[in-house]
Amino acid sequence: MTAQFPPPVPDAGDRLLSHDELEAALRDIGARRYHNLHPFHRLLHDGKLSKDQVRAWALNRYYYQAMIPVKDAAVLARLPDAQLRRIWRQRIVDHDGDHEGDGGIERWLKLAEGVGFTRDYVLSTKGILSATRFSVDAYVHFVSERSLLEAIASSLTEMFSPTIISERVAGMLKNYDFITKETLAYFDKRLTQAPRDADFALDYVKQHARTPEQQRAAMAALTFKCNVLWTQLDALYFSYVAPGMIPPDAWQPGEGLVAEGSPAVKPGAFSGSDVPRLPRGVRLRFDEVRNKHVLLAPERTFDLDDNAVAVLKLVDGSSSVSQIARTLGQTYDADPAVIEADIVVMLADLAQKRVLER
Ligand SMILES: O=C(O)c1cc(C(=O)O)c2c(n1)C(=O)C(=O)c1cc(C(=O)O)[nH]c1-2
C-alpha cells in the first residue's frame, strides 16, 4: 500500500517569505507529510485493525506520550526569559499533571489499560519497538541540539493534530466494539491544548525566522518532526500489519495483558489477615493550609478522601485488615464484612502507588 501525497508546491527560492507565505509553506508540509496520511492511521480509523494491532499502537504511542514532557523540559531549559518559560511550562503540566493520577500520561495509561494492558507492563516500556524508541529519542535530541527556533518549529505538527484527533475518535468509536469514550478520554483535552500550543509556536516562528535561512530551517524542522511521527507508524505497520515481522523482544500479542475475565479486584489485593503498614518515609499528615489529610511520600503528596483517612488512621503496623474493618464497623455502625470488601480494594490501590505495604 502506498500513501497518497499531494504534489509539492513550487519552491519559494531564496527570498524572505511574508508571515502569511511562511505559514502557507508550513501548512503545505503538513498537507503532504503529516501522519494522518499514513496507511496505518487509515486502517486504525476505519476499523480495519484487529484488537491486537490496536493494542500495538496504544503501547508504542505510550512511549511518545511519556517522552513529550522530557522533550518540553529540554526546550524549557533553553528559553531565555520568564515570560516564555511560563507559557512553555504549561505543556509539561498538561502531560505530567500536577498531582498523582492527573495529566496526559496518566490518561494514555488509561487508554492502554482500556485495550487490555496491565499498567505495569506499559510503564515498563519493555515491549516498545526499537524503531519507536529511536524516532522518539531523535525528537528529544533534536530539540536539545538544534537552535531554539528549530526546536519550537518542530512542535508545529500540532497545527494539524485537532483534525486527525476528531477523525480518530469518531472512527474508533464507530468501528471497534472494545473502544469506549472513556478509553479515548486522552484526546478530549488535546482538542483545546493543541491549538493553544500551536498558535503560540506558529507566532514564535513567524517572529523569529527573520532570514530566508532561518525560515528554511523552521520548515526543515517541521519536516523532520513529520518524519518522527511517520516512522513510528512505518514500524508499527511493518511489525504488526505487513509483513507482520515482530522484532525480537518487541510486544507479542498476549503479553502484558490483564487475564480476560479476571475479577475487578486489582492484583495484589489484601486479605483479612494481612497487616498493612506505611513504608519507611511515608506519613499521614494533616495539611493545615488545605485543611485536609494527605499522605506524604518522598517528593510526592497524595490527596485522600475521608474513607481513606479513616482507614489510614488505623494502619499502625500491628492491626490486620479484618481488625481495622471491625473497628470501623463499630465506629460507623456498619457491617464489618462490607467494610472489609471496600478497604481491600482501597489498600491495593495505595499499595500500587507504593505508599502502603504489608
Ligand atoms: O494524536 C495525534 O495525532 C497527535 C499528534 C501530535 C503531533 O502532531 O505531534 C501530538 C499529539 N497527538 C499529542 O497528543 C501530543 O501531546 C503532542 C505533543 C506534541 C509536540 O510535538 O510537542 N505533539 C503532539
Automatic annotation (TrEMBL):
Signal sequence annotation: none
Enzyme Commission number(s) from the entry: 1.3.3.11
Gene3D superfamilies: Coenzyme PQQ synthesis protein D (PqqD), Heme oxygenase-like
Entry superkingdom: Bacteria
Keywords of the record: Oxidoreductase, PQQ biosynthesis
Residue ranges of domain Thiaminase-2/PQQC in the record: 24-234
Any GO BP annotation: pyrroloquinoline quinone biosynthetic process
Identification of the protein by name: Pyrroloquinoline-quinone synthase
Lineage: Bacteria, Pseudomonadati, Pseudomonadota, Alphaproteobacteria, Hyphomicrobiales
Gene designation per UniProt: pqqC
